[in-house]
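My current task is to audit a protein record that another person submitted. Thanks in advance; the entry in question is below:
***
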Amino acid sequence: MTATRIGLLATVVVFAAGWLVAAALLWRTSVPSGVDVGGLDASRFFSAHELARAARYQRLLDVVWLLSIVAKLAVLAILARRGPRLARSIGLGRVGTGVIVGSVVATTVWAVGLPFELAARWWAARHDLAPGVPAAWLPAQLSSLAADAVAALAAVSLVLWLAGRLGERWWLVGVPLAGLFSAASLFLFGFAAELGTHAPRRAALRADIPRLERIENVDGTPVRVNDVGDVTPANAVTNGFGPSANVVLWSTLLDGRFTRGEIRVVVAHELGHVAHRHVLKTVGWTALVALPLAWLLTLAARLRGGIADPGALPFVLLVLAVVGLLSAPLANAVSRRYEAEADWSALQATRDPAAARKLFVDVARTSLQQPNPPTWDYLWLKDHPTIAQRIAMIDAWASCSSQRRC
């Protein structure tokens, strides 16, 4: 018995050490450790009226988000209490019952969240940051629910099937499969994201892209344009990895509000994501998080009959939602580090701090972003550095560049 316990303890220690080493490697970025992105006075770049307007806009969105979280957790708690009785009344076997229970949970949570999404959409439309609520909005939400539900129910079916055969060791197979699925999904989405897009039409932009790609060592990465309408904030996204990697610019970035220099900074930022393999690193974080999460959910399921019991599913999903809420600050911190690295790469590639500074000031004004949001908002809702942090990084880069230290 003592030898068994020692062996188990040694296994846990080795696993924990390996986990921490992998997390440390994924946490590392190319941004110099001494870069200070705090303490910027936002009033240097924004008027009191602009700061107050952005704060008012964000305040209602924060309230809507908070009420949505409370409502969803409440309905999950109710379903968790009724889950065992619901499962017993279905009687379609472990997997079949799990699919029905999962469908009920997914549909109920979606329905509860719908009014809050509608309120946020209305508030954005009122500030000309989104289209109004067209007749096709609800059918589009139903289509999104269907797509998400298929993926979620496939995961539920797999977990219940594995748990029925492997018991609480289901994660030995389930977690590697989850990692493979995550990688495959992100890889294939890279190809899908190019559908419906087109090549840049501006000659200047077509000339800038290859030069930036050469500087960042990502030659041949497709850069496309997606027509998103007239009342959507400017944005750009990086998709896929390896052969499927690409950058998609939203058409609102090219509608005349942003200069050529600003657009260059955006393209260089997105190519920085490709150069530093941020999408692939996201797969690594998924694998790291999946292991302790699967263990925690398995332990929690014991309170409701075990992970193989479909009646425990609502309770497990409640625990998952709570863990997701509590771990959101860490997930956002990882995302902000990668976004900061892409910002640094853009500065290194363009060497145009004036254009970068103007870009973030214009982004804040056109999207009503708070340059310095409240701390709780920053921790739980912001997966990018704040506008103030990004401008402070530009100032830091300009300072060290003038001294030829970066």
Summary: The chain has twelve helices and three strands. The first helix runs from residue 2 to 27. The mean pLDDT is 92. The two ends are 58 Å apart (CA to CA).
